[in-house]
Structure formats: structure tokens, C-alpha cells
Amino acid sequence: MENILTEHHSYIAGDRVTGGEAFTVENPADESRVAEIPATPLPEIDRAIREARRAFDSGIWADMPARERAGVLGALLSYLETMREPLVATMVAEAGQPRMFAERSQFHSGLAMARGMIDLYLSIAHEESNPVPVGELIRGRVGLSLRRHEPVGVVAAITPYNAAFIMALQKLVPALMAGNSVILRPSPLTPISSLIFGAAAEAAGLPRGVLSVVVESGSAGAELLTTHPAVDMVSFTGSTAVGRSIMAQAAPTLKRVALELGGKSAQIYLDDALGKVATGAAAVIAGTAGQACVAATRMLVPRERKDEVLELVSRAYAGLVVGGPADPSTTIGPLISSAQRQRCERIVDRAVDKGATVVRGGGRPTGFPRGYYFEPTVLDVPDNGNPAAQEEIFGPILSVLGYRDIDDAVRIANDSPYGLSGQVYGGDPAAATHVARRLRTGAVNVNTALFSAYAPSGGYKQSGLGRERGPDGIRAFQEVKHLVIGELR
């Protein structure tokens, strides 16, 4: 194992916390111990909340001019850039991600997105004239009506295991640029890559209390963050089931809640775009082993050409290399845990019981006595009611379904409790875009994809509330204040 990050302690308002019962972070590729991490004691998480409240109420960060905040956050990102090697090695070790994915998709794309979020924040107005009819201004003797965007306050940022570093950046940078104080709580499965943010905050000179990073093996700390009256907002990325719990926990104090939750996205191929199915199928599982909420795990194709597609997709999956994440030839690493692999096995069994056929894969690959590997799997699914077509799996499993016509394809795609993402492929971009507009989902890629600070993501239905990235992702961390100003008479 390459040299990973050596900072394994929580960061509470400028202090490294050395106490707490240690828990093991496991390498899912070989089931070895990556590190023993001291859990943040619950009283220290409470202190992080109180210090965040103090820092915010003091105005030391919230009242700082935006360009000065941008300078501090730029220095924080520059520090992270100097830590590329140990950071990437840590992501490979704790998450089992192929090195190329960890380096390109998390580290480089994450930092580019974060710098873009700073630029975007500086480019949009945070105090603007509020349009009011002239007659109302005269009758009310109003000189000026303004809409002002101000920080929410104290934000709890709770991130998932599958992309811990980039998800932390996606929450921290807009929240901090907006002037909030933030407590970051990463997944217990992949906490080490998030502990670097404490050292980065210290190196950049972030005021004490503005950022804390807490870690734990269970959920007691997360529950304190979602229920504490001094926390104003919870931003969570993870499963829909946990998202429901967070909403219930936040309800008594009426916290703002931003949720990016599960997905069961569909990729629709029009008849003239079937040459792209192999590439589209590989994109679902390559790099992440299918552990991505936006993964388009339902492939919808014309019914009369389904057998042809199954052959093409199976051939594509045969070319993917399952292996250790440190091996540069690997395209599919392990799943995060034994429990997640067992879930994939159960889903395949239930899918087959309900009429699906395993065309390729379906179980544990040979040659891996240790590690939580699962074969790239193609299922021929008879209808959208099948468990493999309805449930989020978070594994390298693709369901192929046939549709009668475009109306049927749209119906199948929308027949889901989720609505996070989607894809449409067609030789005529206008025709494909017409289909995309009919999908009930937060984002649709038509023949291409874009990950950018300027492009929002988020879900319809049970895929979440609110947006991340883009102007909406900044506004998510702001309150709106109306200022009405007139002369004293």
C-alpha cells in the first residue's frame, strides 16, 4: 500500500482531538486494515457545534468581504493540491477505487470544480434590486426594495463513502464562500481522505470554529448534528432511507435540509444510436463498480433489437478488467464492503426469481480469495416491475429493458420512485432533446455529459431536495432577506 495520509485525528475549531475509541478503516480490495482512526467523542462534536455557532455569530468569517473569503479558500485548495500523492493513495486504499478514477475524477475534477465554485460565487449578485410596481413604491413611500442573500448559519455536511473527497468539496466550498460555518462528518467507511480538510483549514488561516471535521464508526454524532438547535442546516448525500431519517430528525428545529439521495436512472437509446450502447454500459460501472447515485443502471432499447444490444453489452463487460485498484489496468475495483456484495447477490437472485435472465456475470469472480469483488453483470429484465429495475443496487449490475415506442420508453423511465439523472442518445439531437424534456429527473445528458461548478445536480421525487453546484447550489446555503428602505417622515 502506498503512503497514505498520516493525519488521523479529528479537527475541532482549530484543535486536533486525540481522544476517542479507535475504529478500523478496512481496505475493501484485500480486507486488510488501512488505519485505526480515533472516533470523535460526542462531547467534542457538541463543542464543534458550539464553536461553529460562536464563530458565525461573531461575524469573523460571515462579515469578511467575499473576495477575502475567496483568497482564504483558494489557499486551502492550494494546500490540498500539494497533497496529491498521499490523498490519491488514501482514496485508493479506503474506498477501493481504481487509481485513475481517484486521481482524475475525484482529485483533479474536484479541485477544478471547487475553484469554479469560488469564481461562480464572485460572479453572481448577492444583493439585488427587487422589482416592485411603481404604483406600490409611490403609495408606500418606498425608496428602495432589495433582495439580499445571506448565509444560513451553521451547516452540518454529511458525505457518502463512494466519493468522499469530491463530495466534501462540493458542500464545503459553496457553504464557506457564502459565509457559513461548517462541520464536516464523512462516512465511517472512508473518513481518512476528509481529515485532510482540518490541516488545509489551518494552513490557509481559516478562523477558528469556521470548519471542524468529525469522524465516527456509528451514527450518534450525525444524529447530534441533525438534531442540535444550534445547527441551522443539514446537507446530506446518501441513501433515500437515511435521508428520510434526517428529515425527521431535523423537523423539530425546522432546519433547512438539502438532500442528494438515491437514483435508478435510465439511459434511453433511440433506434439510430445503438452503436453507443457498449460505451454507455461500460460508463455505468467503470471506475466506481456501479457505486454512484447517478449511475444509469436501466438501459432502455427498442424491443425488437434487445437481443442485439444484450450481445453488444455483454461483449463490452467481458473487456472490463476486475482487479486490485492499484493496478493501472483495472477498470472495476471492489465493492465497499461484504454487506454491499451480499446485497448485489440478493438482488440478482430476486431479479431471476421474478423472470430476469443473467446474461453475463451475476456473482463473485474467481481468483479473488480476499476483497469484496463482484462480476460486471448484465441482466435481461422482462419488465420495469422487476426488483433489479426498481431498487437502487449500488453495484456493477446493468438491467436491459425493451420498449415498444418512444412513449413507452418515457413511461418506463419515469416509472420509478427516483429521479436523479438520465441519459438519451439519438442521431438527431433535437429528437433526443424532445425525449429528455419529458423525463422526470433532475438532470438529463443528451449524447454527452458535463460535470461543472456551473451545472446543477439534484433530484426529483425520492432522489432528494435542493441542488448542488451551479447558482442554485450556492443559494442552497443562503437565506433571502427583503430590505425595504424609505425616508424618515
Automatic annotation (TrEMBL):
Gene3D superfamilies: Aldehyde Dehydrogenase, Chain A, domain 1 (3.40.605.10), Aldehyde Dehydrogenase, Chain A, domain 2 (3.40.309.10)
Keywords assigned by UniProt, alphabetized: Oxidoreductase
Record EC number: 1.2.1.3
Domain annotation Aldehyde dehydrogenase: ranges: 21-482
Catalytic residues of the enzyme: 260
Broad class of enzyme this protein falls into: oxidoreductase
Record GO terms (molecular function): aldehyde dehydrogenase (NAD+) activity
Lineage top rank: taxon: Bacteria
Catalytic activity: an aldehyde + NAD(+) + H2O = a carboxylate + NADH + 2 H(+)
Family in the record: Belongs to the aldehyde dehydrogenase family.
Record-linked PANTHER family: ALDEHYDE DEHYDROGENASE (PTHR42804), ALDEHYDE DEHYDROGENASE-RELATED (PTHR42804:SF1)
Stated name of the protein: aldehyde dehydrogenase (NAD(+))
